[in-house]
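Bench log, entry 3. Co-assembly request; chain sequences pasted below exactly as received.
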Amino acid sequence: MMADKPTYEKLESIIKELKAELVKSKQIEESPRENKEKFNVMLQSIGDHMSMMDKELNIIWANKTAKKIFGNDIIGRKCFEVYHKRKSSCEPYPCLTLKTFQDGKVHEHYTEVIDKNGETIYFHCTANVALRDKKGKPKAVIELSRDITEQKRAEEEKSKLEARLQVAQKMEAIGTLAGGIAHDFNNLLMSIQGNISLILLDMDSTYPYRKRLKNIEKQVQRGAKLTSHLLGYARKGKYEVKAIDLNQLLEDILETFARTRKQITIQQDFAEDLSVIEADAGQIEQVLLNIFINASDAMHGCGNLILRSINVTHKEMKGKLYKPKSGNYVLLTVTDTGIGMNKKTIERIFDPFFTTKEMGRGTGLGLASAYGIIKAHGGYIDVESKKGQGTTFSIYIPASEKKEQQVVKTAEGVIKGTGTVLLVDDEKIIAKVGQDLLEAVGYRVLIANDGKETIEVYRKNWKNIDIVILDMVMPNSGGGEAYDRMKEINPDVKVLLSSGYSIDGEATNILERGCNGFIQKPFNINDLSQKIRKILEKKFSQH
Ligand SMILES: Nc1ncnc2c1ncn2[C@@H]1O[C@H](COP(=O)(O)OP(=O)(O)OP(=O)(O)O)[C@@H](O)[C@H]1O
Ligand SMILES: [Mg+2]
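Structure output for the full assembly:
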């Protein structure tokens, strides 16, 4: 049988079939390429860093992310050089990739790499076998790395915050203790001081024990300085807040400081337009004096003390351990050319009772209280120093929009007066010594020992009472409540607050509510008589 002759139609259909076969076979042929491309697209679109290394640690393939981070020219270069800027394989040896080459297993670790701009990036890195040779041994290893820089920074920030919180809690606890001790000591000192003042008042200048009494008084004053440092550290004692000019305060302090330290050359560079600060001048003076004395000690009394005041904003306070609150600040820098400090000393200088000075020369409370005081003023204090190269303290205090208030200096010495004083103190010994002091300078005195009694005595006698000296911490309603009740009875009541220490902010609160003044225990007869006169003078000049 003869085979059918192919007709045209048949030929047509065969060609069609062949064409279809051809397409099919082409598809089969194209499939691995297509797959490879698809695979490549997939790899390139992965956000994590991927790169493949051969046994000699040459990078033989990298995805887009890797090239973006380390540069487009990384293929063919050594991984340790590209990722770690090293000249030889990474330590500890063998590195992650080599371990995978050795045992064919997956290995992972955390590492630091350096990108093309020199910035450090933190990676979590996994190495796995990518290709094997005919014997099944790893021929190429692929590393997949995730950038965990942000996560790591957040963790670091968190642990820094926790550390700061711990320090703050420690400071708070020691502060409460310090404040409590200061209060009790101030009351003790008050009673000693009061009695000395009274004896001295009666004693003529030729009396043989007068000198001894004066010595005791000096020690009381040293004790009072110590308690005021404790109060500063406890962030208490910021009572007489006024809008003041820091330059002026500096000039005043330097005048006395320079007189006693003639070998020190003082250079001043004060901004003429320096903003006003709202501060307790007495406390800021305490901070500055301590820093000046420290500088003088560090220079053994001879060298340069350079002072600079300038207006800044929080933006200029970069690279600090703390995050400053936004706003304007007044910056004072105090530089000395003294012995400087090593890192270990710097870390401890704000700790209470840390001193390198010999016994009897330093208590180590100066900077601890400076820190507390500046903090209580919403400011910051920094130090920069190198052993043998001098020291610079930088003090930032928030600037105020208020107008400067003149600090009126009172006359020195005892000022006699007349009128009636209601003296309020829960400690009977102090009330008694206070009464004697006041009577000695001419006042008639009424006494109250707690809040309730204060209100009762005031209600009965308010028309005759010229001024109330009010203790802050008292049983049966504290000083704050007593003040409000007296104010209800007589809106013009004149009150001088007195305290050895006050519960948080209470004194400041009362002062803000219009109280007329504050006197810190232990006070001597001079301070007391001057403060009373100042308030009463205003009272009489108003009428
Ligand atoms: N300008 C400085 N140069 C070198 N060291 C300093 C300087 N200021 C402070 N120090 C170091 O810091 C320590 C603590 O200072 P701080 O003022 O708190 O206490 P103090 O001066 O030792 O005692 P106090 O101030 O209670 O009399 C000092 O003993 C000293 O070692
Ligand atoms: Mg000091």
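The chain is about 45% helix and 20% strand. The radius of gyration is 39 Å.
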